[in-house]
Write a structure and sequence with these properties.
Elements (H helix, E strand, L loop, with lengths): L33 E9 L4 H4 L4 E6 L12 H4 L5 E3 L1 H13 L5 E4 L5 H13 L6 E5 L5 H6 L6 E5 L5 H8 L4 H16 L3 E5 L2 E13 L5 H15 L4 E5 L8 H6 L9 H14 L4 E3 L19
Helix pairs in contact: 3-4, 8-10
Length: 306
Amino acid sequence: MGTLRTSPCNLCPRLCGARRDEGERGVCGAGADMVVARAALHFWEEPPLSGEAGSGAVFFAHCPLHCVYCQNADIAAGKAGKPVSVVRLSEICLELQAQGALNVNFVTPTHHGLAIRDAVRDARERGLGIPIVWNTSGYERVEVVGALADTVDVWLADFKYADAALAKRYSNAPDYPQVALQAIEAMATQAGRPQFDEVGGLPRMRKGVIVRHLMLPGALGQSKRAVKLLHERLGDAVLYSIMNQYTPVMPPSALGRFPELARRVPDDEYEELLDFADSLGIEDYFWQQGPAAEESFIPAWDCTGV
């Protein structure tokens, strides 16, 4: 598949070829610089990632996927954040460790994968000892997963769609189902079965894969297909997280184009999806209740920690 590179860029499945070091921007919106909107303790990931101490979340601006319903749309569009160097990102990792973070959690990192790899290598040489989490949409190239074998400890990957038509409608990525599934299978092969240690009397994930599926309004059938497909292909080699935190944060103009996304997921539909997961024999998975679908769970993009 050739050498991975930022310019002309081939880091994500879009393969846009943008010459980012010459001032061009990729489909993701990113140029040559890493841009970070927030680097702080984050308490709303799955329990073995956040625990009581928090996950050290580093939120990157821009995104290769640009889902129409993205709750982080402002940073996905590059409207917040400031440039950081490889050296500064290394320092941020160490600062999060010093704050007691259970891990360093890179959120939407794909388009800066090679620079992040360099920063992690430098931070480890300077004493970084907590796990690295790659928090991704799942829309990854298998080659990039392989290139990060010595960088990433825990893969936190979405599997958004089992249906190509829905992937095209909401993310302009009809190839998403097969691309993401192949990438997640590569992550599972690379990381192995989930491994844990203990911090403060609670389990912390040190290795492995968590696959998230966010249920969307009016898409119960596609969610069932997604969960079934994942379980058929991956079994208990990964952990599953079935989420109901979809929040309709789109502007009215966008909701006018996608009226089905103007509501939250009804509780009874979410319960039906959980019952379906049980029927497949998925014995243990993460699920959400109560205030998970609240805008208050969206952090402030104020460059804290950057």
